[in-house]
Amino acid sequence: MRKHRWLFATTTITITAFALFVYARSSPITIKGSDTMVILAQRWAEAYMAENPEAAIQVTGGGSGTGISALINGTTDICNASRPMKRKERIKLKQRYNTLGVEIKSAKDGVAIYVNKNNPVKEITLEQLKDIYTGKITNWKELGGNDARIIVYGRDNSSGTYVYLRDNVLKGKDYTPLMQSLPGTAAVVNAVVKDVNGIGYGGAAFGKGIKFLKIQKDENSEGFAPNLKCVTSGNYPITRYLYMYIRSKPTGEMKKFIDWVLSDEGQAIVSKVGYFPLR
Questions:
Q1: β-bridge partners, 105
Q2: DSSP alpha helix (H) spans, 102-251
Q3: pLDDT in tens, 227-245
Q4: Of all helices (H) and strands (E), which one includes residue 214?
Q5: Which of 164, 183, 221, 273 has CB atoms 3.0–4.6 Å from 217's, for a disulfide?
Q6: What span, in angstroms and rounded, lies between the C-alpha atoms of 250 and 255?
């Protein structure tokens, strides 16, 4: 009889443990949004799950706008965004969940301006960048470069970087209709690598095989590159935060994960990926 009780207890414990394991694995933390942040988020998830085998985290991209829509629709736990949520988006969240959401600054980035390595132009002002992307400047010779048409590459309107640049550099003006909109930052970089007359934009971590243009605040200012020193000091004129958004104050495993992202260990991964830590 005692043996049967022992077997029953052992079986119950085993089933309970298995059930907890299945529950944990079947209830992952879902992260969706910014393509700028997707590699960073994957590295965070991989490292965190290696230290916490009971945790399950799923990461997908699609753009900041896609992630914010998923947060509002309840189809993701965490939204990654390379721009702040807009007021109208927060109102939609409040209408559905009676909360304006929680904003967490998770890293810094310098929006990098990519040109081909063989392009002789080294730096431009913010005003010139605006004029390129609104179609006012169309030839590299206007910037001291070759007599060649500027081929403008950018992101689609679901991109947080598209919105950030439009709001903060183009001052709300529309992009030139000649801009070739591409589905991800990697595609923008690939296009500029192959096109000596191309120009594109995106996160600093994606800048492989191209040249960063230095950016001047105005024509009388020094030009700065999107590197650690210039971004963390605030001298690089197109510096921004990278955000995580959640619907309400985090608890449980989500809080544990977010605390880890903001820890020295999580911020070290920010540097390894090519972005800039908060401190």
A1: 243
A2: 126-134, 160-168, 185-194, 228-233
A3: 999 999 999 999 999 999 9
A4: strand 214-216
A5: 221
A6: 5
